[in-house]
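Students often ask why we bother encoding 3D structure as a string. The short answer is that it lets us treat folding as translation between two languages. Here is a chain of 437 residues written in the first language.
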Amino acid sequence: MTDSTRRDFLKTTGATAVGTAALTATSYAAVQGANERVLVGVIGPGGMGTHHIRTLVTQKDVRITHVCDVDRTRLAAAATAAAQDGREPATLADMRRLLEVREINAVFIATPDHWHAPASILALDAGKHVYVEKPCSHNIREGRLMIEAARRARKVCQVGTQSRSTEHVMAAMQLIREGAIGEVLSVRVWNSQLRRNIGRLRPSDPPATLDYDNWVGPAPLVPYQANRLHGVWRWWYNFGAGDMGNDGVHDLDIGRWGLGVDTHPSTITALGGKYFFDDDQEFPDTQTVIFEWPSVGKEGRKKQLIYEQRIWTPYKMDGYENGDAYYGTRGVIILGKESGWKLYGERNKELKTMAGRPNLLAHHRNFFECIRTGNRPAADIEIGHLSSSLCHLGNIATRVRRVINFDPKTEEVHNDKEAGPMVRRTYRDHWGRPRGV
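And here it is in the second language, the structure alphabet:
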């Protein structure tokens, strides 16, 4: 794509990047002034949370006033990383205390998955704008409650699928919408990389620096085990969504975007399991999931999305470690969110290419712009819910090993006593338990 073409593209798609549907809330600009700093609290400043902090401190119109974590060691490191103008932010171990700070305009939530929805709902109910990491929820019911909380609070809720604000991905979506490869009827998504073995361990005492009870939060309380945290929580049913919800959700989100579907699928089937790793991981290292939408667009065509996961492979597929292939009636686009895309026409003739990398800063800027304007963000919670639900539905189908029939309107699995309850989860009696679960 030439520089002039890129400028024209950005002009025509800028509305998409910032969101076109205005919220009815009073804008931040009207309350505090468009040129004043947005005051931010960061909850869960671990791996991805640290990336957010490093990006936030580069933005002159943003100030991190508080960081919060249940691990004192990580909390101290985060405070140092978040220092601005020679001042470190305040540190808190309990997110409730952070949410009580009236001056905070927005929170970034980068906790483990099982805290994403509870923390977001608490923050929205406290009148804060929310940027929450992917997958936005631990289960389908939580995602719906997050949408309701955002609309009730009239606040911006951005999900951390930064490809929605990344130039080369937006350019590919524009080409698809313009019909460059004809009508896209099927998309293949793959998550192909080499993860590590987490071993087999027994329960033990938690570190003295960790408030393990509040780390578990509203999830069922299980004994501490060193290979449940930090980072490895994503491989456990109680706390994560497997690699489908960890890395796969990015490419599933891009895949759903290019397929042009804005509802849940109705039919899901899957096979998979632990083919490679001999360890304590509960989620599959190998999965193939097929999603089908029965009627899309004016012509009511069926559409299909295929997800493949192999997290034991030290090589790339089609030139991309993780990627999306959009199969159109006149051509195909092969896209990797980490590096770019190629467009092929008939007889595999290469027609266009574009390089690119994920742009976390642009996603932040979109979030803050929407706080000031009242627009919906590029990865609004409703978008995040639909894409995160693909992960949840895929994991459900993989666990029960059969076709499941899902009602997109009621968000329930029909006629399946085993799969049906999995759209929700069991909670313990804890202050973080969301209302309505």
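Translate back mentally: The mean pLDDT is 92. Keep this in mind for the problem set.
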